Amino acid sequence: MPSRLGSLCGVLLLAGLAMLSPASSGKAAAEAAVRGVSASWSSGAYAGFGLASGQARFAFSGLAPRTFPDARGSVVSFVLGYAWQSGASAFVAGELLLSAGVLEATTACALRFLSCSSAFTDLISARVRVGQRFDRGSVFLTLGASAAKERFRVGIGRILVESSDRVAGITVGLGAEMVLSQNLTLRADLEHSHFRRGTHDVTFAVPFQAKAQVTLVRVMLVQRF
Prior knowledge:
It is built from 2 helices and 8 strands; from the N terminus they run H-H-E-E-E-E-E-E-E-E. It has helices at 2-18, 22-35; strands at residues 44-61, 71-86, 90-108, 115-133, 137-156, 159-179, 184-200, 208-224.
């Protein structure tokens, strides 16, 4: 799944870069006219949903390194935002992005009879999106703030000791959109987030800190209103 999402995201990003070419823009406009798709842009609200796949990488302090694994997986994403059109093509948008699901992994601890698991969940981002619109799509950059919950567990059989912490950070990214119909677009973006250190204790004696970096590849359908 991550490789398929990455491939689709790459194709859309390359298509977005191709829009920067005047020749490509003219060709897209002609195709839009033939297909009867309106490519006009205006200020307004939008909402969408899609699938994201990626990895949460952890750096530890106060604990033997690599005790807990990096977390991987896929999450469902929802977006709600408003875009302001500036002139014929430039735009600025503010949006709230929610990701439902868990990035997680489990491995054997240093003591082999114990299992160690990592999880990263409840990711929320508030970000600004700035970009350039064309006849058949747009390219954009993103910058914002994120919050999420990281969780670590140590277990033996059904006995688990768990520690979790809410962490905040900053997120940056880039992406592209392709017009599918008058008000429907297909969006792909790459997002990278750095989070502050979270404090945990799964031994009742030796607390440790974990600092996460999360990279997600996301594909969404977006409806403009």
